[in-house]
Specification:
The chain is an all-alpha fold and 192 residues long. Helix content is 81%, strand content 0%. It is built from ten helices and no strands. The termini are far apart.
């Protein structure tokens, strides 16, 4: 609280004091996040962003805000927060993996809400963005894992169909079943 008072009431605060308060606000936000006071953490992070709207690390702070909303169970605010991160032009420069990750998180949250069509659309957007980043030569570390996970989860219903195809012990029927299973496997390979 004291840091917020100093920060808000003395815009002419000397340079060292400003830096100390600035750092303290970030630490307070992390502390509030760790303590489960997600609303206060988001407010502290917003205070920092208001003071540094042009800082290139803002997308990282926006990510923390979205995560705070998610942990607080404020799914709609979390979705909007994650969208704000991936739409911020500074995100690619800061961490290209974050673009794919936040798009994936939007899809994850839509699926949790039972909005599968929106979830698929978000995941397809993440995969398309991944492909674009790869073509641009971006150095990606986490994104390939996120993309593989999304592709696998989207493929799961088709894989279950493949897995359900049994092969009969009757030679004639067994050949038909084997062809059907092979065809389905080729379809899965093409999709993935």
């Amino acid at each position: 609280e004291y840091f917020h008072i100093l920060y808000g009431h003395d815009p002419e605060f000397e340079t060292e004091g400003f830096r100390a308060v600035d750092l303290a606000i970030q630490r307070a936000a992390r502390y509030q996040l760790a303590m489960g006071d997600y609303d206060r953490a988001a407010a502290d992070y917003h205070t920092w962003i208001e003071a540094h709207p042009d800082d290139p690390t803002v997308p990282g702070i926006l990510l923390r805000i979205a995560e705070a909303y998610e942990k607080a169970g404020m799914t709609d605010k979390a979705i909007e927060g994650y969208k704000t991160v991936y739409k911020d032009s500074r995100t690619v420069a800061l961490d290209p993996d974050m673009v794919v990750f936040t798009r994936k998180k939007v899809g994850d949250l839509y699926f949790e809400q039972g909005e599968d069509a929106k979830g698929r659309k978000a995941w397809n957007g993440a995969i398309d963005e991944y492909k674009r980043l790869v073509k641009s030569g971006a150095e990606l570390k986490r994104a390939p894992v996120d993309v593989a996970e999304m592709r696998f989860k989207m493929l799961q219903p088709e894989f279950d169909e493949y897995d359900a195809i049994t092969i009969s012990s009757d030679e004639k029927q067994g050949r038909k079943d084997l062809r059907a299973k092979t065809t389905k496997m080729e379809e899965l390979k093409d999709i993935y």
